[in-house]
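Entry 12.
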Amino acid sequence: MILKGADAARCFAKPDPAKAGLLVFGADGMRVALRRQEVVAALIGPEGPAEMRLTRMAAGDLRKEPSLLSDAMRAIGFFPGQRVVLVEDASDTLSETFAAMLAEWRPGDAQMVVTAGGLTGKSTLKGIFDRHPMAVSIGLYDDPPSREEVEAALRQNGLSKLDREAQDAVMSLARTLEPGDFRQLLEKVALYKLGDPDPLTASEVDALAPATIEAEVGDLVQVVAERRAAEVGALVRRLEGQGVQPVALCIGALRHFRTLYAMSTDSGSGARPRGNFRQQESLQRQSSLWGQKALESAMGDLVETDLSLRSTSRAPGMAMMERTLLRLAMTKG
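Predicted 3D structure (tokens):
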């Protein structure tokens, strides 16, 4: 069974203990690790590891001795409650092992939680979990989290009182920061607001937001969006010197232009992202400067560049990225 979007988010928060297995895969290891941690905690609770109801095994060990999985799945625990067998870094080489376990699984056995890197549509491992009625397959892609996911994360951290501008600021940061950084931000905000009955404000969110390389990537993207082509080269060189990868620049630019596009198509319902509180005016100006057609074309260019960067091409990645950013910055309105 394949789950996506809101259904996937609900599964992570409240997985079905009657299922035989769950596969979580994606190219972003941090994103996969956070979701794996969430679903395991939801299945066995905070005391599960201490009560030995969690068995971890590496994919490499399982390849050497496939019987380890069936032994762990059927083991009788000392403590009552749901048991989980966690297999990390799985790949298609273990497809037959998981297929056999799913075929043999019976109620009362432990539940498998399997993590993997980026899997293609032709992946045999993914296909096994996709098709089995007692298994769940969830792919995590480099898309910004939905409003429902962000609101769930806020609730988990006890942050239920936010004014409208604070909500917009948090949504923008959720789309800008890496998953682990965003999680740390919410924990810091929750600690800051502990015992404070007043709603969280946008200025408080901005004050607590991390000032990291992401901010410098954001500066470069702002320059491109404002069509200040003369400043692009120097910023690219500085970020390259700090070790920033061209794919990271591409992801940052694509997220920004998606935000601008969402704002350009906003019907006034408030459902679209409006960016960081301090940046709203500049984002609105940039959105008007480009217009929907130009933004669609820009996103298409960035997607093509991203695919080229991730391919086996021998072209210098940063030079390719710089050329795309310069081309966008020189776009005429």
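Annotation: Residues 267-276 have pLDDT under 50 and may be disordered. The first strand starts at residue 21 and ends at 26.
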